[in-house]
Specification:
The complex is a heterodimer of chains A (about 400) and B (about 100). Chain A is of the alpha/beta class and about 400 residues long. Helix content of chain A is about 30%, strand content about 25%. Chain A has eleven helices and 23 strands. In chain A, the strands form seven sheets. A five-stranded parallel sheet of chain A has the order 5-2-1-9-19, covered by helices on one side. Classes of the chains: A alpha/beta (about 400), B mainly alpha (about 100).
Chain lengths: ~400, ~100
Amino acid sequence: MAGAAASALVRPALAQGRAKVVVVGGGFGGATCARALRRAGLDVTLVEAEATYMACPFSNAVIAGLRGLEELRFGYGALRREGVAVVHQAAVAVEVESRRVVLADGAGVPYDRLVLAPGIDLRFDALPGYDARGAETLPHAWKAGAQTELLRRQLDAMEDGGTVVVSVPANPYRCPPGPYERASLIAHYLKTRKPRSKLILLDSKDSFSKQRLFQAAWASLYPGLLEHVPLSAGGAVTAVDAAERTLSTDFGDHRASVANVIPPQQAGRIARVAGVSDRSGWCPIDPVTFESRLRPGIHVIGDAAIGGAIPKSAFAANAEAKVCAEAVAGLLRDEAPAAPKLINTCYSLVAPDYGISIAGVYRPAGDLFADVEGAGGTSPLDAPLSVRALEARYAEDWFRIITADVFG
Amino acid sequence: MSAAHFVLAALAVAAPSMAGAAAPPGASSCAGCHSEAGRPNVAIPPIHGQPAAEIIAAMRAYRAGERPASVMDRIAKGFSDEEIQAIAAWISAQR
């Protein structure tokens, strides 16, 4: 306490006029941004309803029984020690005119600039028969936590010989390769624990991230066990019946022993309340500053933003957060930020020792990010198993390193 | 003085003042995989604080497909010589 008071006293001039930035959302994007803004010398408040954060990367490994859920939990102690004011309340409104974020208890937090990193909300109005109550029977498990555990328990309880059905929404949604990694790791679980079972992957798309790599791996690791049904073969789920565990498509019904419904998504609620999302449910931004195209003074990063070529991933959110923090700090000094470049790297596990990756480099182009031509792409299709094992190792290293960068 | 020596000399002068400078395009993304704190027991090598000339040489070799890689060959192709030099100077000045 004495130390904190002393350090406050040695910076009276800064404290007097120091600009205030509020960050809403303490995930990979928000926590990274809050920390970077604080390191830039700003007065930063992070508003996050939950006391701890449960990471989504590697939650598919939890579902498959390869990792404990608690290994995905991270706290905000390091951010506090660096001087970020962390407030564990829901942000319920944004008063744009008076520049205040309203908290659940009615208090207002003033800001000079606001960063929203609210992640996603599941849309419980988009798939007939699927709402918050239906998700208690047919888990989405697309936000890590209780839903992850629910799906894992359902798989544990399933008899050998059962049918697992996973449904995948149309683009855009959080973590483009995530459903295919999940199907792979559930298939691994079934192959090793319940080999008479089957997995059907009902897909609202005909093409997907790392497709050829996934399909080649499925053919070699899970033949006859994992069946991918693309849009053109009737994969789009049009309705669900939670009580009957039945998923309907235009081509027929699928009765499941365990069903994982990944529904359509949209930007987290506070983005919609603040008026920074458009009719698509996502948030248009200036890709140089991440400032909203709809509400000046409010920046949107991570899954909630419309990123164009850059995917909705934890890696991208972390990279966007750092660029956004520099832009916000610059704008508060009346400096025009330079055009950034961003990198994304994303690993998927097809089996515990079989990893594949996709990478990209992105530049601002109009209101979106575009791929830098000639860069990026996936792991080679013909790589030996030693390369797959190395990429599985890199996936684990990546998770340890990025979570330390954000929360450590 | 060769071009390489010139770059090194320029970096040696520039580096000390760059630790708190704005990250050049692409540079702040690196810490998503490469630990700034140099964590033990990870296969992904630390790069922050390493000599800029080594980072430049590695990035050029990755870009040319002359150095074994998993993702760095795909990433290096997204950057020009000038961008690589700026990134290397900044990364080298961190920590």
